[in-house]
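Customer escalation, tier 2.

The customer says the design service returned an amino acid string that "doesn't look like it belongs to this structure." They asked us to rerun it and document both sides in this ticket. The original structure tokens are below, unchanged.
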């Protein structure tokens, strides 16, 4: 089972304008600051920005897949539930940004559920552009017994 302090291998990705466009189309978000450079400049940005949950998709493209992550945490993927996820942003993310993501297990705890004990694994992921933290994500995975 996962242990507090476990660190995952870092991964890197380059934010691409086309990937931002694909993402906003897929989620149905028509905010022009995500696709129109002129609209982004009028809003005070130097270029289009990535939407808030775009980093999750970048993790799926560049980071380890679900099965690998479950192996690293020593959990059965058939017993996994998504608990919650939240982001704290410190600056916008733009096309061309080189982002490095590092993650570690921040907490592990148990609670009793209706069908038995459940383990909660909290992973904190830090996204950096060079030495600047652009965002922090905390996600909770629930593992049924």
């Amino acid at each position: 089972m996962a242990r507090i302090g476990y660190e995952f291998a870092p991964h890197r990705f380059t934010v691409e304008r086309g990937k931002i466009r694909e993402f906003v189309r897929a989620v149905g978000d028509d905010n022009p600051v995500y696709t129109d450079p002129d609209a982004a400049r009028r809003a005070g940005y130097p270029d289009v920005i990535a939407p808030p949950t775009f980093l999750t998709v970048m993790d799926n493209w560049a980071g380890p897949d679900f099965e690998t992550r479950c192996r690293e945490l020593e959990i059965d993927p058939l017993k996994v539930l998504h608990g919650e996820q939240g982001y704290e942003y410190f600056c916008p993310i733009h096309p061309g940004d080189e982002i490095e993501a590092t993650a570690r297990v921040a907490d592990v705890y148990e609670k009793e559920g209706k069908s038995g004990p459940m383990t909660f694994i909290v992973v904190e992921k830090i996204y950096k552009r060079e030495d600047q933290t652009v965002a922090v994500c905390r996600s909770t995975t629930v593992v049924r017994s």
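Tier 2 assessment: The sequence is consistent with the input. Residues 11-144 form a domain with the Thiol Ester Dehydrase; Chain A fold (CATH 3.10.129.10). Residues 17-27 form the longest helix (11 residues). Sent an explanation to the customer and offered a walkthrough call.
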